[in-house]
Specification:
The chain is mainly α. The protein is built from seven helices and no strands.
């Protein structure tokens, strides 16, 4: 019976959070393949720890684990001096591509690329807060718990990230 409950809890958590894990991983790692690998690793860690993870705090645990895993991947990349970049954007899914007529897709793709480039110029903390809030829809409190920072810092980082992104995207400031 316990095994069935553990499996059910895992399936529910995977269903709820796997897309957010992928999006967050992709925003940090910068490409689809690494994000897929990271998502699998996080889900494996979740399976190993599902009994210890509170259902009410699962999102924070999962996102914190995702962030830490992705930062470790980036550290490993820098150690071997092999920066992997396939040119894919890190925020697929943010842009609405319902209108797929010629120019609209090109514009959406170009805009997505500009947003990705701008996000990659942000310091890691600003980028993490922005992606967790704007892309994954987490609340201030959840981000605070996930990143181990005060709620006021979350608000400040979010404001700074928005301002910096606006400056970069409008060309007000050099990247």
């Amino acid at each position: 019976m316990k095994g069935m409950m553990r499996e059910l809890k895992f399936k529910i958590l995977c269903h709820r959070h796997s897309d957010a894990v992928y999006r967050f991983s992709r925003s940090i790692l910068g490409n689809a393949e690494d994000a897929e690998d990271a998502t699998q690793e996080i889900l494996l860690k979740l399976w190993r720890n599902v009994s210890d993870v509170s259902t009410m705090r699962a999102q924070g645990w999962i996102m914190k684990t995702t962030r830490n895993h992705c930062l470790n991947v980036l550290r490993q990349r820098s150690r071997v001096a092999a920066v992997l970049s396939d040119g894919d954007g890190g925020l697929e899914g943010i842009m609405d591509e319902k209108n797929r007529g010629g120019e609209t897709v090109i514009y959406g793709s170009e805009l997505r690329s500009r947003i990705d480039d701008a996000l990659n110029l942000l310091p890691e903390k600003l980028k993490s807060v922005f992606v967790l809030y704007e892309v994954n829809g987490m609340k201030y409190r959840e981000i605070s718990e996930c990143l181990d920072i005060p709620i006021n810092s979350v608000k400040v980082y979010l404001s700074r990230s928005r301002s910096r992104l606006k400056e970069i995207l409008t060309g007000e400031v050099e990247p």
